[in-house]
Amino acid sequence: MPLSTAALSAADTAAGGAQPTPYARGRPPYPMELLPWLQGPLDLGPSSVAVDLGAGTGRFTRLLLQTGAEVIAVEPVDVLRNQLATRLLGARALAGTAQSLPLESGSVDAVLCAQSFHHFADEAALDEIHRVLAPGGRLGLVWHERDESVDWVAAFAAIIAPYEVEAPHFRGGRWRAPLADHPGFGPLHLASFPHRHVGPPREVLLDRVLSISFIAALPPSQRDEVADAIAHLMATHPTLCGADTVAFPYCTRAFHCTARAIP
């Protein structure tokens, strides 16, 4: 399912301007442990071509470039893509969507979707991803999963839970069915990496919540209510109140599968 027009518009607004924005600041970085995963199971190196699909402002693109592969960042939102193109000159930034990739058939070795696949997990997108992958190419899917065994993380999750019910997201698992049903991809393999987003509480919690697509798409009054609730959590929880830095715990889930010929 693609991002809604409202969500794309909100992301455009959130990402505008020359200074780092809540969207750019709030997105967690990716653990360096993903680099051996990209070079191993994803088989990426200097002779490879990799696509970062739904690249945003390039958080994951930056890591992907470290494999030495030729990297093509595909992002439908103009403001996000322009920021990426300005900051990451080693990547080629193209306008496109999962259902319409501006690439030749069989031209890439891997397609990576970091924090994005749940937005467009449908048959049309998978057909298009399969089209651009070379025989035996890889599809990689990466998400950060919150560690809600930590009490303040559970409180953060409870604040956004009412808005998350109908929105596409990783935790609901609805992205799995289209992939399992598609004849062009083999079984999924999972690797998991403990990870922390370390920074000022405003960045790690408040900017993070404002960068979530289904929060960004809310009417301004509701978005303000969510921000106020997060600010209250920051001001009242013993771990967060007065802290200069905080470590938001995640488990980064990295899935991959191999493209295969369709009978």
What is the CATH topology assignment of the domain at 5-146 and 169-196 and 251-258? Rossmann fold
Number of strand elements? 7
Approximately what portion of the residues adopt beta-strand conformation?
Answer: 15-25%
CATH class placement of the domain at 5-146 and 169-196 and 251-258: Alpha Beta
Total helix count?
Answer: 12
Mean pLDDT: 89
Largest sheet, order of strands side by side?
Answer: 3-2-1-4-5-7-6
> What would the principal axes of the Cα set say about the shape?
globular
The percentage helix is 25-40%
Question: Secondary-structure element sequence?
Answer: HHHEHEHEEHHEHHEHHHE
Class computed from helices, strands and strand pairing: alpha/beta
Q: What gyration radius follows from the Cα positions, in whole Å?
A: 18 Å
Assigned CATH superfamily of the domain at 5-146 and 169-196 and 251-258: Vaccinia Virus protein VP39
Report the sheet with the most strands, covering strand number, pairing sense and barrel closure.
7 strands, mixed
CATH architecture verdict of the domain at 5-146 and 169-196 and 251-258: 3-Layer(aba) Sandwich
How far apart, in Å, are the first and last alpha carbons?
26 Å
Residue ranges: pLDDT <50 for 5 or more in a row? 1-20
